[in-house]
Amino acid sequence: MKVHRNLLDMSFILSAVVTVVIVCVLSYRSDLAYREALSPNGEVDLLKGNLNDHWAVFGSLSATQVRFNQKGETAEIEIRADSPSWSEVSSGVSYTIGLFYPGWYEFTAEFRGEENDFLGVGSQLEVRSDRWNFTTKAGPRGGSWRKVDIYFRPADSDPSAEISCRFWGDAANRTGRAFLRNMRVARIDGAPPPMAAQFDLQKKEEARLGRPRHRRNGSFRSVWMTLLLLGACVGVFGWLFDGGRASGSLRPT
Amino acid sequence: MVVAAALRFWHLGTPAEPIYDETKVLNQAQSFLHGWAPPFSSHPPGGKLLVALSVFLFGNIPWGWRAANALMGTALVPITYLLARRLFRSKLAAAVAAALLLCEGMLLVASRLAMINAAYVTLGAGAYLMLWCFVQEREARTQRLYLLAMSVLLGLYVGTKAVISEVGVLLALAVVILALLGRRPKGLTALSNRRVIGACGLVVSMVLLVYFAMFLPFYWVGWGGLADFMNYHRNVIYRNLDLPLDFPNASPFWSWPLLLHPYAYSRKDILNGTAEVIWCGGNPLLWWAILPAILMAFIRGYTRRSLAWTFMAAGYVAYLAMWIAIRRYVFIYSYMPAEYLGLLALAGALEECWVGHARAWEQFLLLAPVVVCLILAFGALWGALAVCLISIAYPLVKRRFELRDGKFVFLIFISAALLLWAYFFPLWTGIPLSETGYMARMWLHGQGLASWL
């Protein structure tokens, strides 16, 4: 009877472990599918699909104060600020994308601000990855399309990029608009063209933290000596504990 | 275990970017993988080495960053079940402890992020389990094995989280000494003296050995010898002494049990009007019920001369009291090791309700947080109405099903904990919520310390 019960217990535990493994595998597979969906053919069009589901608002602007409309190939961001706080802190809209394939990426976009002195609202396009920021400004007298084309290799410690359109203003209740078109992040094979604007963030990270020094000098012996000493202590105290063995149970808890 | 895995691995890859302290941990993990000098961290490298291993095995993707922690968080549930069985010698108490752990949010969040919190709590729990195996073992040789296993786990615990883990070591040492001396009620004999010294020496030297060994990767990337090891620790102490008293989202330790100042690790306001929030807060019912449970644990520990109850109560107090001496900003997630012992005590208190050993005032104290949650969730009027309904239902249910008072309290409490878990689940997993839905869950939103925003 007891053997049967043990077998039953074991089978329960085994099936639980197997189910946990299946859950892990399914989770991993579904995440891979999600990753593929993020970058089909290594390219992400940031102005495709329902923009309101992909872009987020940050700073003091709320979702109700920002409208993101798509008109053909051009997307229009309009802010209708009605509270003073938005102009005091950094506010705007952003799109965060995971860049999980190691290597170089190209960011391209066309950007135009529609602001003037009367409206008093300026805007800027930013690409941020890890500690690095690329910014191009438009306004308050901007009006023509600006083309942005940059190459960057994300650092392994933060393989993502945040593309944002920031607004600023000299008064609280101003409205303003910014236009974006042909906005893409694409993975490229090999290195970028030599004359192009490029940022190797992985290299910067390596420079910041430094290469391994491998100082295997005499003082390294002290480490092994310490480990040996502690190991010896474990042995001696273990012997001391076991050497004083006694029978009988501990008091019940 | 299966439910724990499902909760921890579901949509583990979202958010797709590192959030909060994940950036720091990933930075360290990547430097280990590349053989670079790791950037400064106040905590030993255990948690970061685990994340580095996870990235090495599963790839540099969000799922890969977080998988090892999710596994640790999953393992915490069966460990808790086994530990509670040892502590209370009851399958029901063990099942309740595991269930409470599943209903707790802050531990869930910690298990779903590439940070160090889930790892050290699980290592601590594993060490406690070995400790109680040691205490309840009769065979001296097997006892030594448990002691060794406990010491290795404590070493990993100390090698993952600074300061908090040392309290765990002291707690374990105290139980080991009491358990060994308990066999010789008339005081120290030569034999017990030798065993106590042997056990304490074994624990301390093994903890130091494992802790020291965890720094070996630092030697590979550039440290020269023991002097660098000492300099690192001096640097950690000086830097922490220089830190200010206050910081955004920081809160004093005494406010943690009251859940006064949880905060969002990340918040993304999507333009469609929803918000994706990862909230560093717990299940309010469980947090608030821990306080009476600890009081009961103290009383039971004293009146029944029970080492298990005293362990939970004293451990909880020790994990909180350690912060009195620390003069730098601290965050609510540092409450987790105390909370873990509190949840165990709560499971024991609920089990005593079910079996009919809990007294009336104990049952009342356990129901009080349910009432507070009802009022905060539905407002004073509807909350009071719900309390009245429960009060009316109580005698009816009792008469109809011949339930004992304690069973009614148990069922009400567990049902409320499950409902609140479901209610707050989107906040712990980043499921999009409308602004109204988000604000409805922010029960405290004042200007001062009592704010969940």
Model description:
The complex is a heterodimer of chains A (253) and B (453). With 253 residues, chain A is α+β, with helices and mostly antiparallel strands. Chain A has 2 domains: 2-35 and 220-244; 38-213, Jelly Rolls. Chain A is built from 4 helices and 12 strands, in the order αβαβββββββββββαα. In chain A, the strands form 2 sheets. In chain A, strands 1, 3, 4, 6, 9, 11 and 12 form a 7-stranded mixed β-sheet that branches. Chain A has a 5-stranded antiparallel β-sheet with strand order 2-5-10-7-8. In chain A, β7 and β8 form a beta hairpin. The longest helix of chain A is centred in the first third of the chain and has 37 residues, at 2-38. With 453 residues, chain B is mainly alpha-helical. Chain B has 2 domains: 1-238, no CATH class; 243-453, no CATH class. Helices cover 69% and strands 4% of the residues of chain B. Chain B contains 18 helices and 3 strands. In chain B, strands 1-2-3 form a 3-stranded antiparallel β-sheet. In chain B, a hairpin with a 3-residue loop joins β1 and β2. The radius of gyration of chain B is 23 Å and the shape is globular. At the A-B interface, α1, α2, β2, β5 and α3 of A face α1, α2, α4, α7 and α8 of B. β2 (56-58) of chain A pairs antiparallel with β1 of chain B.
What's the structural blueprint in terms of helices and strands?
The complex is a heterodimer of chains A (253) and B (453).
Chain A: H1 2-38, E1 43-45, H2 51-54, E2 56-58, E3 66-71, E4 74-80, E5 91-98, E6 105-114, E7 121-129, E8 132-138, E9 146-153, E10 160-169, E11 175-187, E12 197-200, H3 201-209, H4 220-243
Parallel strand pairs in A: 9-12
Antiparallel strand pairs in A: 1-11, 2-5, 3-4, 4-11, 5-10, 6-9, 6-11, 7-8, 7-10
Chain B: H1 2-9, H2 22-34, H3 46-58, H4 62-88, H5 91-103, H6 105-111, H7 117-136, H8 140-158, H9 164-182, H10 190-213, H11 216-220, H12 226-242, E1 263-270, E2 274-280, H13 284-303, H14 307-321, H15 336-355, H16 360-401, H17 405-429, E3 433-434, H18 435-441
Antiparallel strand pairs in B: 1-2, 2-3
